[in-house]
Amino acid sequence: MKRFRDFIHHHFAQFGIAGSIVVALALYLPRIGFINREGQPYSALNHFVSELGWIGVSDKAILFNLGLILGGLCYAVFMLGLGRQFRGFWGCVVSILGAIAAVFASLVGIFPVVDHWPGLIAHLLMAGALGVTAFWAACATIFMVLFHRTKVVPKPFALLGGAILLSFATGLSVNPAEHVTPFFDFETNQIVNRSDHWRLPIVEWVIVWTVVGALTVVALYFEIRRRVVKTRPDERNA
């Protein structure tokens, strides 16, 4: 168990970087050649993120779903290691919430968008749980950065968490009755009357890229710091 903890402690940032690379590829590659059932190419302006993994619609759904599964697992290891940097009770909170959110990201890939209601409900539950846990993980991380007794990361890094919370706030401003119901046929589980600029998918994309971007910056910071300390034996042994 100690070896496992030591491994995470020394390599967690690399898992965060790997997770960002995998997720970025999963978000980009399936868009190539994507044509929806209305004959439209994929656009982040009017397509949900999860449509890239829609079984029977996206011809590269396997890439998206596998990318989420692998990327989520990488992020889970990253969050476990990140929390350990803070130590103590709140460090455990960051680790647990972050790892749970990452696992839900993997579960979104395990339960992709499908045409039947049971599978679609499972997907929506996983996506909703991901959003809730990611929100609280961001809150806990901001608290730790601002008020932790040791300077694990520079306090301006709290702005990254603030950006995540702001992106979620834009999602709360979306009225489902106005931005979901008119575009969804609940009898066939199909999207209809898709507008050229659909607010809800745009907000979803903003949230996703904000979270991925913030995690990437934090992971790069710790990896660069690890490499710098590694080349300075006096600091490493301090």
Describe the structure.
With 238 residues, the protein is mainly alpha-helical. It has one domain (2-219). The protein has helices at residues 2-28, 61-86, 88-110, 117-147, 158-172, 176-179, 199-230, 233-236, and strands at 184-185, 190-191. A two-stranded antiparallel sheet has the order 1-2. Strand 1 and strand 2 form a beta hairpin. Helix 2 packs antiparallel against helix 3 (88-110), helix 3 (88-110) runs antiparallel to helix 4 (117-147) and helix 4 (117-147) packs antiparallel against helix 5. It is elongated. The model has no long low-confidence stretch (mean pLDDT 90).
Q: State the low-pLDDT regions, or none.
A: none
Radius of gyration: 19 Å
Strand order of the largest sheet: 1-2
Strand tally is 2
SS-based class: mainly alpha
Mean pLDDT score, rounded? 90
Beta-strand proportion: under 5%
* Overall geometric form: elongated
- Write the element-wise H/E pattern from the N-terminal end onward: HHHHHHEEHH
Helix content: 55-70%
Largest sheet: 2 strands, antiparallel
Helix count equals 8
Give the domain tally: 1
Q: Distance between the terminal alpha carbons, to the nearest Å? A: 25 Å
